[in-house]
Amino acid sequence: MNQTIKRLFSKYQYSFILLRELVITDFKLRYQASALGYLWSILKPLLLFVILYIVFGLLIGVTGDIPHYPVYLLLGVLLWNYFSEVTNVGATAVVSKGDLLRKLNFPKYIIVVAGSVSAFINLLINFCVIAIFMVINGVELHVTSLLFIPLILELFVLAIGVAFLLSALYVKLRDINYIWEVVMQAAFYATPIIYPLSLVIDKSHLAAQALLLNPMAQIIQDARHVLVTDRSISFESLYGNGWYRLIPVGITIIIAIGAAYYFRKRSPFFAEEI
Predict the structure, then answer these.
(1) Which end of the chain, C or N, has fewer beta carbons within 10 A?
(2) pLDDT tens for each residue of 61-73
């Protein structure tokens, strides 16, 4: 067992070192010369949350009967921002490191993984803000709250899978970045982040079920259900059968495997095509 671990460490030691350096460099350059520096990693989602809460929560009043709505909304915003950051940065990751690709021979996937790890660290930092909001709002944790961990794992796999696909496509098709921006804007409002899913159910139960087949919608709703309030409609409660959750989870796995295969197939030609 120890020999196997040593062989794996020796094989991927260079990749781990490069990954660490890319993540550190990304953190140093991200908010370089800004007055507030790393605080922006917390302030950006918080400012978006404040705007959405004032407009949709207080003025329009789409909170429904959801308890702890501020935490409910903030959690959805943070999870969506993580997915958005990983995919948007990942789309241009390979092209932005074109000079490095032409000078060094290293596993190309490290570039995309570095962006995902950097965004994940930001997400962990923002979870501290979530914890503070939960204490202020009196949100109680239960044993079922541990189910939040596999949901975060599912989110990580989905985000990095889409990032692999976009980064490989962007090398050949530079329009993919603009297309993805439009897709993300539409998907933000098509995902129950601002509004409770109950509003969709009131209009059409079938439409709500179709909405939750989107892995991001399923992750956000289930995360709210296990972490914030059990009155948040989960995938299982909407479908009445937990086995149906295998559909969005299966979509996530298919995207991740397909994207990894396509990225690996195209990666030997990146340096020439950039």
Answers:
(1) N
(2) 777 678 888 889 9
